[in-house]
Amino acid sequence: MRRAPDRRRLFGLLFVLPAALYVAIFQLGPVLYGLVLSFSRYSPLSREGAVFVGLDNYAALLDDPEFVQALLVTGRYVLQVLPFTVGIALGLALLAGKAFRGVGFFRTALYIPHIVSLTAVSMIWLWIYSEQGLVNDVLALLGLPEQRWLVSEDAALNAASAMRVWKALGSNMVLLLAGLHTVPRELYEAAKVDGAGRWARFRHVTLPGIRPILTYVVAMDVIYLAQGFPEIFVLTQGGPYGSTTTVNYLIYTEAFQYNEMGSASAMAFVLFAFIAGFTVLVIRGRKS
Amino acid sequence: MRTLFTAGLLALVLTACSSAAPSGGQPPGKLTVWFPGNSEAEMKLVKESIVPAFEKASGADVEVTYVDWAELSPKLNAAFAAGTAPDVIGHGVAATADLAANDRIEDLTPYVAKLEGRADLAAALPGGQVGGKQYIVPLIMTLRMIVYSGADFKAAGLDPEVPPETWQDVRAAAEKLTEREGDKIVKAGLVLPSNPIGIQQSYGTLLWSNGGEFLSPDGKKATLDTPQALASLEFFAGLYQGASAVDNTLGATWANSPPAEQPIVTGAAAMQLSNAGDIVKYQAAAPDRDLRLMPPPGFHGHGPRAFGGPANGLMINKDSRQKDTAWQFIAHMMGADTSLSYAEALGALPVRASSVDSPYIGQNAELRKAVEALPVNHANPNVPGWVRMRDAMGKSLEMALHGKLPAAEALKRATADVDKIIATGS
């Protein structure tokens, strides 16, 4: 009597095994190895292999002004992109939820940036932001002075942020649109009967109704934005003088320009801790 | 998580084969060669002419791989860690010191000693030495020279036949050549590369032609706290700051743009510090601008020096099992005709001084000036950790150019950063 369930379990395990092995070997393994490496000094050029240095790499980060600045830049980048990309996407989702002529085109047009590679998009925006680019042409038409978008300390991170807001809008809008469809119509009708206006319906029906998907959108945006790299690599290469160097860009230079894999791994785990902390805060905020 | 995954995966790939184990080149029989870049003309020449000729003469089987510059170091490092690095490595000179310090490349001094016609390579070979030993054999040369427009000179009342001879004269000419609309520069009198790496190279040209150096002769100390270093940086910053600024391209990355987009070609600038070998492309892109090369200037009281030297060259993997064949390939590349055709395909300056008499150089008077000026080339220090030093000092120099730090303070910071890198040995 017990043989059939055991065999089913065995077959189930066999079906899961390839995926489990993939995750263990190609995802979990490298992460664990990266953790080990973060306690080592290792250059791929060295013939000595990795040398255990304990917490030295982490201690050095505390005293590294470049890393501290990169953390601040990353934090600023996340915080100045997030409200716009979520807020505008929510507005667009509310608009795209209405039935009007061309709504399909509207949704598609907004989603297209999401399916184009971030590197390719960054190349296009590099031209848009150039001195003879589209943005300065528009400013000239309006009689405003042209700006040096990517080479000025004051403008570079804001320029990258604006591009990233545009890039993330489509996917956020689609997710929030799906969330809006899950809010029962009856609640709106009941609220209307009770005399609730548009704002009251949005605040007391829509927002609580989409809170789970909103939390997901914010958490995922935090995770992706905090790992900003391709746009920085293409648009500014971390400059001018480090003012757009995110932690991920610093990890890249540390690992591949300077061959310091141990220190780069330590940076990756500190960034991971910050991202995990932010994400927990977002999820807790939803529960409260 | 993606960051951790990426970092971990790369680390795993790099160390999977245990870097403690000796890494070997490819098995005997096939000579593997990596070239940097993606120039179609170069690839065609190497794969269709140079390599077949070498294979026919030597009987060797050569496998050439081109690796884009941006990916070259990561891929090469991973290959070293995995024991799959090629027998012959094409790379920039800046990579040599770290590879030599980690015992990854062969000392080519004994090979070079037997090379025929070494005197013809006198301007090229020293740039490929680390600690007095030859580790890389240069394939092409580069030299920063000022390209100027004869047409703009005439329009500004300057004689294009008598170009400025000192940096002070260059500055004075630049002020006459600069055109403004109100406060805005609409035509720069002089533009210098000022993107992150370009800043260090431009500053080097000014510093060396003012009698200064980045490091002490033994490479153990920064020497940026000198009056020459300060005067050079103040000169550089003065190009962008104040009412008499002459350059409006601070931070812009035009240096790597196509010839048709170069400020000197479009007419956005009247003088431009540039790679001298590019003059032919610039002239072809703007035949009406009468583009010429100015002999490298020095500051008053100092001889001319300019950033330059070997641009890239060939090394031999220390673990290669066919070093003699690898050297034969390098020697083949260094042959007078082969090296000249290689430089011509890339539009670069050749390594041999005798090529000044070749049709490629002889047909263009400006290119001839460039080859004749090669002896004043000055390469960056070839010491371990140089890339990190270059980036660190570049950041401080950039702050001075943007007016965020006084020049003296920027140099103080750069000195401290470089000394710290030297002290930690990374």
UniProtKB/TrEMBL annotation, chain A:
Compartment(s) of residence: Cell membrane
Gene3D superfamilies: MetI-like
Entry-linked Pfam families: BPD_transp_1
UniProt keyword annotations, A-Z: Cell membrane, Membrane, Sugar transport, Transmembrane, Transmembrane helix, Transport
InterPro entries: ABC_transporter_permease, MetI-like, MetI-like_sf
Any Gene Ontology CC annotation: plasma membrane
Family recorded in the similarity comment: Belongs to the binding-protein-dependent transport system permease family.
Protein name per Swiss-Prot or TrEMBL: ABC-type sugar transport system permease subunit
From TrEMBL, chain B:
Record keyword Signal present: yes
Keywords: Signal, Sugar transport, Transport
Signal peptide (UniProt feature, chain positions): 1-20
Transport in keyword set: yes
PANTHER family, per the entry: ARABINOSE-BINDING PROTEIN-RELATED (PTHR43649), DIACETYLCHITOBIOSE BINDING PROTEIN DASA (PTHR43649:SF12)
Protein's recorded name: Multiple sugar transport system substrate-binding protein
